[in-house]
Amino acid sequence: MNQAATNTDPEAISRDISDDPLNDPDYKTVGEVTVLNAAMTTKNVNVYYGNKQAIFNVSLDVGKNEVLAMIGPSGCGKSTFLRCLNRMNDTIDICRIDGEIRLEGEDIYSRNMDVVLLRARVGMVFQKPNPFPKSVYDNVAYGVNLHGLSRNKPELDGIVENALKRAGLWDEVSDRLDQPGTGLSGGQQQRLCIARAIAISPEIILMDEPCSALDPIATAKIEELIDELSEQYSICIVTHSMQQAARVSQRTAYFHLGKLIEVGPTDIIFTNPSHRLTEGYITGRFG
Ligand SMILES: Nc1ncnc2c1ncn2[C@@H]1O[C@H](COP(=O)(O)OP(=O)(O)OP(=O)(O)O)[C@@H](O)[C@H]1O
Ligand SMILES: [Mg+2]
Questions:
Q1: Hey, how many other C-beta atoms are within 10 angstroms of the C-beta on 286?
Q2: CB of 79 closer than 6 A to ligand 1?
Q3: What's the confidence (pLDDT) of residue 20?
Q4: Domain count for the chain
Q5: How buried is residue 40: exposed, middle or buried, by Cβ count under 10 Å (0-12/13-18/19+)?
Q6: So what's the pLDDT on residue 26?
Q7: Residue 58 near ligand 1, beta carbon < 6 Å
Q8: DSSP-based helix, strand, coil % in the chain, nearest 5
Q9: Bridge partners, 263 (sequence order)
Q10: Best substitution site from 48, 55, 71, 78 to test ligand 1's pocket, by max atoms within 8 Å of Cβ?
Q11: Residue 159 is part of a domain; what is its CATH number?
Q12: pLDDT at position 23
């Protein structure tokens, strides 16, 4: 798999160089970027911060009910790409995006797209748990009210309870729903943020290093939860932990310097990757 790098045959060397994303502006991802049953499709996405390009021509589908892991060295564009999927980059003034991103066939960058609704359909969980300065109950109820998803208090109570149960938090907070969400432990806060996202029935949940601020026990709980949630939702997770990617995801995408180098079934990416850059990363040669 890393033959060409050590081969002295000039043809093999030139093949290796043309395979090098650094030298190839039209670099084409290794592996199958499309899926049959896509919740979201992205095609030829480029992202710029001012005149610096951060994502180069990335195409990648997100399958229904799949957990897709995005990995790669720091600064390779994982968060930037993830944020494109629910237009969080809109909040960064100097950020510009071109290409095509569709949710259930609908162009999310079209002028008709309601961005508030989009962010409900494509929810997000961040690295640092960020509950609102509100009660546990109101954290979960907030989006439900915002989108008018319940008709009365009993219905709202039911939605809140159900979301907290699915987030694996109900048993720990059912007796303190009126207390501040910020008073929970870090791991509980992260599950509260997940409950907040799922209360409004998203189609996709984006997670940007959701466990990096958590201890191993809280991490294990979130990983278990990701597995359960994937029965109902599509999940895209950025992680620095290859063990985590291997544990939770079915497909893994490897990014390097803004390019999507390789994508494939997680077990293949971690045991038998095709691209030498992927191999270099998973074997710890850089990253
Ligand atoms: N708000 C911003 N303004 C300008 N440049 C940015 C901004 N956010 C990210 N970048 C640049 O875009 C590139 C990709 O950054 P990004 O945060 O997406 O990487 P990442 O893979 O998520 O890294 P990490 O693993 O460290 O979180 C980097 O060169 C970064 O400096
Ligand atoms: Mg990041």
A1: 9
A2: yes
A3: 64
A4: 1
A5: buried
A6: 77
A7: no
A8: 40, 25, 35
A9: 253
A10: 78
A11: 3.40.50.300
A12: 72
Cα 238 to middle of ligand 2, angstroms: 7
| CA pair distance 77, 56, nearest whole angstrom | 9
Which residue is closest in CA terms to ligand 1's atom 16? 77
pLDDT, mean of each 10-residue run, the chain (287 residues) = 42 47 81 97 98 96 98 97 97 96 97 95 95 98 95 97 95 97 96 96 96 91 93 96 96 97 97 95 81
Please state the atom number of ligand 1 nearest to the C-alpha of residue 76.
21
Residue 140 counted as domain residue: yes
Domain that holds residue 95: 3-282
Nearest one of 48, 163, 148, 149 to 95, comparing CA atoms: 48
Whether 271 is covered by a domain: the verdict is yes
Both tokens assigned to 62: 């997100």
The residue type of 185 is: S
Has residue 287 been placed in a domain? Answer: no
The verdict on residue 124 lying in a domain is yes
CB-based contacts of 80, cutoff 8 Å, min separation 6: 47, 54, 55, 89
Q: Which of 47, 53, 71, 76 to mutate to test the pocket of ligand 1 (most atoms within 8 A of CB)?
A: 76
Check if the beta carbon of residue 148 is closer than 8 Å to that of residue 201.
Answer: no
Q: Strands of 52-63's sheet, edge to edge?
A: 52-63, 38-49, 95-103, 106-107
